[in-house]
Amino acid sequence: MKKILTGVKPTGDQMHLGNLLGAVLPFKRLAEKNDAAIFIADLHALTSVKNAADLKRNTHEMALTYFSIFGIDTPVHIFRQSDIPLIPKLNWILNNVTPYSLMLRAHSFKDALQKQKILEKSLFPKIVFDMEKKCLKAGISDKAIIFEKTQEAYDNLYGNAPNLNMWIFNYPILMAADILAYDTDIVPVGADQKQHLEMTRDIAKAFNKTYKTDIFKLPSEYIEKDVSILPGIDGRKMSKSYDNFIGIFDDDKTLKKKVMSIVTDSKGFDDIKDPETCNVFALIKTFATPDRTESIRAKYLVPGYGYGHAKLELLEILTEYLRPYHDARAMLEKHPELIEQKLQEGARIMNERIEAKMEEVKEVVGL
Ligand code: AMP
Fold first, then answer.
1. 148: part of which helix (H) or strand (E)?
2. Which of 89, 100, 232, 322 has the fewest CB neighbours in a 10 Å radius?
């Protein structure tokens, strides 16, 4: 049985069906045969969430989401990062063996630096110019609207970019502490996180070499292969940045509105339709049983079945698919104390693990 760990940042973003299929359910399957843990990375979230009430609410929402999907009795240890007081201490110790040159290579830092440089060169005039051109083309001449749109474009590009603070530079070291603290074997990551795991291994190697020890296990990444990309309601990849997503916990009204607005071609009721190029069908085949998928496919290929029909079937399929998660959430919303209990239980187990590891670390470094 391997130790598997993943972290989720409570930034307040809603989890959507793409996240569920591409990340959460694969982790759940992996967790069934292993010793798995998920930490809600509230220390990491401090970089972008600068309001106490928001951070608490986002953290609770993340816990509620995971317990609704995994079940409150899940054997997965779900815990808050900030409930592990030794993590910042281990982070500090790892800072002392982490080469500056290694940190300079981090893509995330380079990207942030680049963004900052662009900001410093003040590209605002260009944004204004581009937006005026765009508005002119679209026949918009109202100065107030152009100003608002320009402001929006600026915020989209730079509004969320924090000042280049030290967290952006240092966070791979905190991530290394999160992983190395519990002798983690495997970390499931998206392709964009691969480099950070390499850095975790480099930091572990640097520590082991400096102190002529092998106390830090080198973790492996796990990248889920053959994850198909789920389309959003506009046909592009479902993503929070495109605002085209269906949330796992969207209420009935929102779900209906989103499903009914899925983009299709303009074929009419009596036209024969191609299921393979249809966004509605792409979602149907992902969430329906094989039998139902085949029966709907057959309806696409004969006259008398419109996209409206397909959307209503999809609505029914999704409602059914999501029902267990919604029911679990409704129960947990009434009993937040159950969530708190489980978070505490998760933290207790993980604290035991890091305490044992830190005894070894302290011994090795002479503290
Ligand atoms: P994000 O929140 O966009 O960083 O996504 C987190 C993870 O969710 C990704 O690494 C993917 O594994 C998964 N994911 C996100 N969007 C989709 C999608 N449209 N289809 C499949 N998987 C997705």
1. helix 143-154
2. 100
Q: Is 3.40.630.30 the CATH number for 3-103+168-228+336-365?
A: no
Question: pLDDT for 48-105, tens place per residue?
Answer: 888 999 999 999 999 999 999 999 999 999 999 999 999 999 999 999 999 999 999 9
Cβ–ligand 1 contact at 230 (below 6 Å): yes
Closest CA to 219 of 206, 240, 241, 204: 204
Question: How do residues 256-315 score in pLDDT, each as one tens digit?
Answer: 999 999 999 999 989 999 999 999 999 999 999 999 999 999 999 999 999 999 999 999
Tell me what pLDDT residue 167 has.
85
What's the confidence (pLDDT) of residue 120? 59
Ligand 1, atom 14: nearest CA belongs to which residue?
Answer: 19
Q: Does residue 238 have its Cβ closer than 6 Å to ligand 1?
A: yes
Cα of 171 vs centre of ligand 1, distance in Å, is 21
User: What are the residue ranges spanned by the domains of the chain?
Assistant: 3-103+168-228+336-365, 252-332
CB 190 less than 6 A from any atom of ligand 1: yes
Amino acid sitting at position 343: L
Task: Catalogue the long-range contacts made by 353-362 (C-beta closer than 8 Å, 24 or more residues apart).
Answer: 353/181, 353/182, 353/183, 354/84, 354/86, 354/87, 354/90, 354/181, 354/182, 355/86, 357/90, 357/180, 357/181, 357/182, 357/183, 357/215, 358/86, 358/89, 358/90, 358/181, 360/215, 361/90, 361/93, 361/215
User: What's the CATH superfamily of 252-332?
Assistant: Tyrosyl-Transfer RNA Synthetase (1.10.240.10)
User: SS3 letters for 255-293?
Assistant: HHHHHHCCCCCCCCCCCCCCHHHCHHHHHHHHHCCHHHH
Q: Rounded CA gap, 54 and 47, in Å?
A: 13
